[in-house]
Structures are given as structure tokens and as C-alpha cells.
Specification:
The complex is a heterodimer. In chain A, 74% of the residues lie in helices and 0% in strands. By secondary structure, chain A is mainly α. In chain B, α1 packs across α2. Classes of the chains: A mainly alpha, B mainly alpha. The interface between A and B is large, with 44 and 32 residues.
């Protein structure tokens, strides 16, 4: 039988990239996503007795990540409002730092509303099932599909718009 | 794959109702066709961007946790303390348990208000009392016989 340390290490190794990408998708800043990932490792270890007994520990860790990333985002938004109005998420902008249409597409995804962004990320980037996403996002499967559909259509419209304005694809 | 099938899958994809297998099929189909219309090209761009995002890996390394020496030491001390308490409890239990009924001295009788547990003393006392009763009975019988004689005369 595996020790608790082995089971913890296996779980965290399995979800580490997913946790980082999810955090990055939500907060949009690499350093902060790294910080959240590290924080999640520690939180999972502290709550190991509960997490490792979960039916879907991977989904549980993703839910922890989502909640933590949203907390950090809210905290940052409050600080930004209080201190400096210049801090904002990466958008399409003037495209000067975006290498190609693929990069622009990532930027479009980053500007989606929070629920849509997370839904499309979990489904199309991470490959989670709708039921798992519903568990992570604490909503029902129909709402997940609705958010997913809206997110995909929104990205498509913006990509089409970009293509129609003659942005070259490398 | 037929273009018609791709368009059906694309519509389902944008409605959020495709299965994982259909999405894999759609990705492969879009990669295999060169001349895509604008809508399908936009979809291919989207899916390529998603795949590219999936290649991002976490720079944060997983460190195998270790339990600190202090924790191990505390766990050992706690184990020894629990074992000591258990042994002490058993010791106390054995030495302070209620004496059983079998082992308690059996009270046989009272003599002049005092408890007597010695069988020999009790038997001697019983002999003495019964002897006294027998003497009294003999005296009583003798008196009755004497009275009977007086009446017949």
C-alpha cells in the first residue's frame, strides 16, 4: 500500500501543469500563477487527509485552484482600483507584442468573462469532461455547456473579425 | 472526411454539445484539409491556440514532502506516553479491583452481637445452644410425666 507522501506526490505531479495553466488563465500573470501553484501544493499537503479521500481528487484540486486564483484576482482588482488604474489584464491591444494570430487568439480567450474563460480552458485546453467541469465550477452541466457555447462563439467572432481585417497568419 | 460532416461537428462544437471523441475527430479533420473556408479556418486557429496553451508546463517543481524530525520525535514521545498510561491503568485496575464475593469472608452467625466467620466456633456455639434446648426439653418431659402420674392417682 502506498504511503500518504507517495499518494500526495502522485496527485500533485499529475495536476501540476493543469493547476499552473488554470491559474495563468485566470490571473494572466506568470509570476502570480507560479505563486498560486506553489500555494496549492502546500494547501493540498495540509488538507491531504481530506483531498486524498475525495472521489475526484483532481477536480477537487482544480476547484481549490479556481477559488484561490479568483481570490487573488479580486484582491488585485481592489488594489488596482485603489492604487493605480493602469494595471489591467492582457487584451488584444494594438497587437505590438502578439506574434501571430495564434497568440492573438490566446489573448482573445484571456479577455473572456471569468466563467466563460475558465469553462473553455477546462474543456478545450485541459480536456476535462463536462461533469468534471461542473464539479470544479460548482454549477450544473447545462450551465457549463451554455458558458462553453458562448465562450466558443465569442472567440470565433473575434478571430473571424481579426482575419477579415487582414491579420497575417505566420 | 466529408466537408458536410466537418460542418455538422463544427456546429455541434459551437453549441457546446460535442463529445470528446467528436472533438478529436474535428481536430484531425481540420488538420487534414487545406482549403478551408473562413469559418472553419477560424475554428482551426482556435483549436490550434488551445493545443498550444496545453503545451505550457508548470515551472514550479513538486517537492516530495518530508515529515520533520520534530514531528517524528513528538510522535514517538506521544506513543511512549500512551503505552505508559495503558500499562499504569492495567496495574491500577488489577490492584484496586473490588474483592469478589467468593474471596470475601463468609459470615456464618452472630454470637452475642458479634460476627462469626469461623466454622468451628459456630459449630461449638450451635452444639452448646442445642444442648441447652435438649436439657430443657428433658426437664419439661420429666415434669409432664410427673404431672400425669399425680392426675392418675
Amino acid at each position: 500500500m502506498k504511503s500518504i507522501i507517495e499518494r500526495y506526490t502522485e496527485l500533485v505531479s499529475e495536476v501540476k501543469d493543469s493547476v499552473y495553466r488554470m491559474a495563468l488563465s485566470l490571473v494572466g500573470v506568470e509570476a502570480e500563477a507560479e505563486d498560486i501553484t506553489q500555494d496549492i501544493y502546500e494547501r493540498v499537503w495540509r488538507a491531504r487527509d481530506k483531498v486524498l479521500l475525495e472521489e475526484h481528487p483532481r477536480a477537487y484540486v482544480c476547484r481549490m485552484t479556481r477559488n484561490l486564483a479568483i481570490d487573488r484576482l479580486r484582491q488585485r482588482e481592489r488594489q488596482a482600483t485603489a492604487n493605480s488604474p493602469d494595471i489591467e489584464r492582457g487584451g488584444i491591444g494594438d497587437g505590438s507584442d502578439l506574434r501571430d494570430i495564434g497568440e492573438r487568439t490566446k489573448a482573445i480567450i484571456a479577455t473572456l468573462p471569468e466563467k466563460q474563460r475558465l469553462t473553455i480552458h477546462l474543456r478545450d485546453v485541459e480536456g476535462y469532461d463536462i461533469e468534471e467541469i461542473a464539479e470544479i465550477m460548482e454549477m450544473d452541466a447545462t450551465s457549463v455547456r451554455m458558458n462553453l457555447s458562448r465562450a466558443r462563439k465569442s472567440v470565433r467572432e473575434q478571430v473571424l473579425s481579426m482575419m477579415n481585417y487582414g491579420v497575417e497568419q505566420n | 472526411m466529408e466537408l458536410n460532416r466537418i460542418k455538422i461537428l463544427a456546429d455541434r462544437y459551437f453549441d457546446g454539445i460535442t463529445s470528446r471523441a467528436e472533438e478529436v475527430e474535428l481536430r484531425e479533420a481540420l488538420r487534414s484539409i487545406d482549403n478551408l473556408d473562413n469559418e472553419l479556418r477560424a475554428l482551426k486557429t482556435m483549436l490550434d491556440a488551445m493545443d498550444s496553451l496545453h503545451e505550457t508546463t508548470s515551472p514550479v517543481k513538486v517537492v516530495r514532502p518530508t515529515i520533520s524530525r520534530r514531528t517524528v520525535w513528538l510522535a514517538r514521545v506521544a506513543s511512549v506516553a500512551i503505552a505508559a498510561c495503558a500499562i499504569f491503568g492495567i496495574f491500577l485496575g488489577i490492584n484496586h479491583r473490588e474483592p469478589s464475593i467468593v474471596e470475601s469472608p463468609t459470615i456464618i452467625c452472630h454470637i452475642n452481637g458479634e460476627l462469626v466467620s469461623d466454622q468451628a466456633i459456630a459449630r461449638a456455639e450451635m452444639d452448646r445452644v442445642l444442648g441447652g434446648v435438649a436439657d430443657n426439653m428433658a426437664l419439661a418431659m420429666a415434669k409432664i410425666e410427673k404431672l400425669n402420674l399425680v392426675r392418675t392417682e
